[in-house]
Amino acid sequence: MVEYRIDRHSGVATYVQIVQQTKQALRMGLLRPGDRLPTAREVVEATAINPNTVLKAYRELEREGLVEARRGLGTFVRRSLGTAPADSPLRRELQEWADRARAAGLERDDVAALFTAVLDTHFQGDPS
């Protein structure tokens, strides 16, 4: 099950963080079709956010066709995203690269900027 981490200082709306983290879990294969998302109550207890925020995020995911709410049962994953499993060799290589970047003194934002620049170079014109 996914555990949401809310960064109150990021400037990103809380419900958007939930949507993004759910999509990330779907891309990484950590959530699969049929899996149940945490209930709004569980998310509220773990993150101390408003239940309406959780419900807004889940409605957005449902609108995108990624999850479906089943009355009295919860919210379940309908489909996956991407093909980058959590145990991919590429993930291990990226982890090693991130370790080297950190050892070289780069901050998180520096690494993100560098990685985004490389992505932009390799995926120009890619609609995704």
Automatic annotation (TrEMBL):
Keyword Transcription recorded: yes
InterPro entries with a match to the protein in the record: Tscrpt_reg_HTH_GntR, WH-like_DNA-bd_sf, WH_DNA-bd_sf
Domain (HTH gntR-type): residue spans on this chain: 12-80
Family matches, as Pfam families: GntR
PROSITE patterns: HTH_GNTR
Record field: transmembrane: none
Protein name, entry field: GntR family transcriptional regulator
Organism: Streptomyces bangladeshensis
Phylogenetic lineage: Bacteria, Bacillati, Actinomycetota, Actinomycetes, Kitasatosporales
